[in-house]
Write a structure and sequence with these properties.
The protein has 136 residues and is an all-alpha fold. Helices cover 74% and strands 0% of the residues. The longest helix has 30 residues.
Length: 136
């Protein structure tokens, strides 16, 4: 913690000055991780249901190029388990994208209490831009 002048109070600095034992920090971290993992699992479950549609959407540009070149080119799987694990991978990445606002919120809720007011203000542009960029 940075040293403060004797003239400034914790309220002026904008930081919660109460001490927290290590176990309380770990309990808080565990709570945030549980919420983030629950959001990721929910996003994965939703996206796994639509994994085939998501895969077709992502592969459509390549399929179009292969169709234009003719020669009966097509995408194939070279392993027996590859179709399933491709769907799992697609669902995991799409689930992460879907759950990212919740995950980022949990990270912020864990980190923000330890920041000074001016440090929080420095993050303000990122906090505003992140959801906007995510939606676009």
């Amino acid at each position: 913690m940075a040293p403060r002048d004797s003239k400034t109070s914790p309220e002026d600095e904008g930081i919660d000055d109460r001490e927290m034992p290590l176990l309380d920090h770990l309990a808080e971290l565990r709570t945030r991780l549980v919420w983030a993992m629950a959001a990721l699992l929910a996003g994965f479950g939703i996206c796994f249901y639509f994994a085939g549609d998501i895969y077709n959407f992502l592969a459509a540009p390549l399929a179009e190029i292969l169709r234009e070149h003719g020669d009966n080119r097509r995408m194939i799987f070279t392993d027996l388990t590859e179709p399933f694990f491709t769907q799992v991978r697609v669902a995991l990445f799409a689930g992460f994208a879907l759950a990212f606002p919740i995950i980022a919120g949990q990270i912020w809720k864990f980190v923000a209490p330890g920041l000074y007011r001016h440090e929080k203000r420095a993050f303000l542009p990122f906090l505003i831009a992140s959801p906007l960029l995510f939606l676009t």
